[in-house]
Fold this protein.
Amino acid sequence: MIFNNEIKEISIICEDGNQIGMNQDARSITVKDVMTKSVISVDAGITVNEAAKMMEDAKVGAVIVMENNTPVGIITDRDFAVKIVAHAYQITTPVKQIMSSPLIATGPDETVLMAADLMYTRDIRKLPVIDNDKVIGIITATDLVNQLAICTEEDIQKMYHESVIKVYKQYSPYN
């Protein structure tokens, strides 16, 4: 809420109705608090053209590829540019041929910081959320940027220190 050009309160109302405010520690916010629950899935046998049309109609940047009701991969808007266009695949190519697999995913109770770390280390921008072998949502780099926008300075300092520690551990000759 803005009153007389001063910010009095900032909060996010999640899809489940829960409120995330500035006083909540960023390290305790979970994936289910910020994920998009609407996810499109396609059968592994459909063509890349059919998948692209579905993505356009639904205005989404990714679809989950399913085989025997099991998530086996993901196709993102970036896959169309990097894999299909760059390699001149036909539009009749099955999605299974160009999907990213194995599917890298997270659980709904994982912290947003852990999901961000997974996305960074695996160089991915869209991370499906799986619970009991069922895709229940997706968290994207955009979701993380939106979350970062409401972090306090203290939260950012904590994230910075955790990152420095991680880099130190990774490159330290004493580990």
Strands lie at 2-3, 6-7, 11-13, 19-21, 41-43, 62-67, 70-76, 126-131, 134-140.
